[in-house]
Amino acid sequence: FAHHIVFNSCGQWMRFRELCLAAQAKRPDLHFGLRINPEHSEGAVPIYDPCAPGSRLGIPLSQLDESVLDGISGLHFHTLCEQKFEPLARTVKAVEKKFGHLLPQMEWVNFGGGHHITADGYNIDGLIELVKDFSHRHQVQVYLEPGEAVAIGTGVLSCEVLDITWNQLNQAIIDTSATCHMPDTLEMPYRPDVMGSDAAGVLPHTYRLGGLTCLAGDVVDDYSFAEPLQIGQRLIFEDMSHYTMVKTSTFNGTHLPALAIWNSETDALNVVKTFGYEDFKNRLS
Predict the structure, then answer these.
(1) How is domain 4-150 classified at the CATH fold level?
(2) What per-residue confidence (pLDDT) applies to 147?
(3) Is residue 170 a contact partner of residue 159, using CB atoms and an 8 Å limit?
């Protein structure tokens, strides 16, 4: 269910235009927009940069056919990834420079996601002023999508050390998986914090934390600990709410982690969802 639907190309919009307008006639609260690509990169990691050269995301100005804008009431852009206010301010200037002539036709503009508004030192006042100024000058409603920002620093993943081996360094095999349960560690790459640990070599005992699948690259990273790890010991990965549950897989038949809610005041742990073989089978059939 949605009130706003954004199309990634002019051709895609034209394929669905008549269907959309027919639906809008029955539901006047429906709005349709185009995702634009201001070709202004602010991302430090190419895989998370929607404006990287050759990106498939959004319409560059050279590919925007202004003759198809009938029925389009808004524009959407997204250039950020866990970034503060200054990259957004630069992006807005780039959007206005390239697409400003279209704004008088628009009712709304979506500034996309990646706004780290919960970060220490984020310029909230600057953001408020930017949104107000943009909205006033262009007479549009402004939307933001700071989804990840509200989940950063929340949620943990609890795992158990299954085995400890040695091959040039200590290897700790855990009952979770980078590829199945936290794929950003391989894709970005991203290094999740482990409670009580530090970077490799900082504390006396360093281990490579490896997953339980057959994939040779199913490795989280190298961590150091004050004391030697023990088989059966539990480790806690921190800040695991975002981009984990929605990206999990059951590769190798690996179990998905159970979902639980912990009450910090009473220390009560309520397991709200567990996964088993039926979940694995249903993904395949």
Answers:
(1) TIM Barrel (3.20.20)
(2) 75
(3) no
